[in-house]
Amino acid sequence: MFLQVLIVSLAALIVGVVCTSPIAPPGRYPFVDGTAPFQYNGEIFNTYYKVFGNLRSGHIPLIVLHGGPGLTHDYLNPFADLTALNDTPVILYDQIGNGRSTHLRTKPLSFFTLDLFMDELSNLIDFLSIDKKFNLAGHSWGGILAAEFVVQRRPDGLNLLIIHSAPASAALLVQSHLQLLQAFPQWVQDGFLGGMSDPPKFAAAIAVYYGVHGCTVLPLPADYVYSFDQIFGPNGDGTVASAPIIDGNWTMIGRLASVKTPTLLINGHADFIQDFVIAPYSQELPHSKWVTFELSSHTPFYEERDKYFRVVGDFLAN
Questions:
Q1: Considering the entire predicted model, what is its pTM?
Q2: Catalytic positions, please?
């Protein structure tokens, strides 16, 4: 169960305090949204997307991949700051099975694969007609998806890449959690490692653990809470979060040297993606820059918001 919770489902990648919020708060910036038809294995699904800014402005758009798996785009709404900062068009979307995209509760868990999510990303890029030139960012599980997409699909139009708080391997992620848990009371360790065998104890444990290493802003941002409610709330859907998308042998190590795209690597000083967990990206990517936010954990776009978007905005301006 420990490996299932921490690696296979990866729901613990960016889990925060489990709480409830009935509706998503309105965004600070105007946006347009819609759905992109997505055909996969003879079926048609819908991918919900949201665009801040103007895709035809001449500025290179940034598409941002949310974490989980199983969360929604909502907790990434602060990326609209980039639109206000330098007119960057920002594209957020709910990965299939989540949020406002088509839910697939009756599908076997084996349906949810890296190929599925990479195909969905390719489809959205084509649908929005940004395939000629775009930037790509992935947070947590989204960083895994971004790295796999770049290595496996080699998109011609990719200009810049951001990998934020994503592990370079499943084994390193587990090692990090085990180290950090030693500083917590035994009941937190037991509840966390017991996983979904006892959901109330697990929820209580992760509320404490991720309060230190996930998001330290209090009260928790409403968009952040809303995203987690889409898995853990009373009407949540945990299907994707339970799927064996990757296993304990998954790794990006030894697979990155061919990536020539300039890459920004990000983590936080108190992040459960500790330095050694993300370091292989820096060691293997030939054109990478690594920034650690010293006053943050897993979500510096909340914890050091102004600095974060200045750093990201400067990188995108290169």
A1: 0.90
A2: 140, 271, 298
